[in-house]
Amino acid sequence: MMRSAEIAEIAGVTVRTIRHYHQIGILPEPPRLANGYRNYTADHLVTLLRITKLTDSGLSLAQAGTLAAGSAESIDTVLIEVDRTLKEQIAVLTKQRELLAQARTSGHVGLSKVAAALSVSSADIPSAVLLAHLYNDAPQLDTFAEALMEPNLRAALLQMQERFDTLDESSTDEELEELTTALRSIIPKVSDEIPPLTNEQSQLVLEVAERGLNDRQKEFLRLHPPEL
């Protein structure tokens, strides 16, 4: 015969856990002694140990309680379902690890591969995130992103960003046109295969991209809105 603290210590759980199992109905409550204390038996301990082992194997508390009580109609059905759930969880975790690895490699934490490729400077991140989302269904997107990360092209884009950053009220129309020509010459040809944004989508990206820019930079973007 055991009290709550004793069976909890033997099973390696807490008294609070045992009370929770009673509340949700997966561990039968033992009869109480005259002094009000619960009086646990070896059978309770075995059930508790089985529940612990089953939940360690990936079963939910409800599934573990059913199997531990021997009332499952088909043990194989339950185990197949648990295995399927675990497989899905592994796939999700694997994808999350891949995204973290990409973020560590690119230095762009929290960005997709495409958003990281589109971010030439920290100021580009909001519009890059939006563009990557709007173009998410384009099958050529990965190829485009890989092209943007090519070292020589990356260096050229950084130079273009530096030129854009110098635009101000004193910049001439000729300078803007030269910048446009230079930009078009370095954008990967694969972008020609990606469908254009709708007018509403372009305006949304433009709204985000224009934040913090001077009038001349905004004028340049309006003539050549950010899109792939």
Please, could you describe this protein's structure?
By secondary structure, the chain is mostly helical. It has three domains: 4-71, Multidrug-efflux Transporter Regulator, Chain: A, Domain 2 (Orthogonal Bundle), CATH 1.10.1660; 73-106; 111-223, no CATH class. The protein has helices at residues 4-11, 15-24, 42-56, 61-68, 75-106, 113-118, 125-134, 141-148, 151-165, 173-186, 199-209, 215-223. The radius of gyration is 31 Å and the shape is elongated. The model has no long low-confidence stretch (mean pLDDT 85).
Write the layout of secondary structure elements.
Layout: H1 4-11, H2 15-24, H3 42-56, H4 61-68, H5 75-106, H6 113-118, H7 125-134, H8 141-148, H9 151-165, H10 173-186, H11 199-209, H12 215-223
Helix pairs in contact: 3-4, 7-11, 9-10
The succession of helices and strands, N to C, reads HHHHHHHHHHHH
Strand content: under 5%
Main pleated sheet: none
Mean pLDDT: 85
Query: Compute the gyration radius: what is it?
Result: 31 Å
Question: What would you say about this model in short?
Answer:
With 228 residues, the chain is mainly alpha-helical.
Question: Which properties best describe this structure?
Answer:
228 residues, mainly alpha, Multidrug-efflux Transporter Regulator, Chain: A, Domain 2, DNA-bd_dom_put_sf, DNA-binding, MerR-type_HTH_dom, MerR family transcriptional regulator, MerR_fam
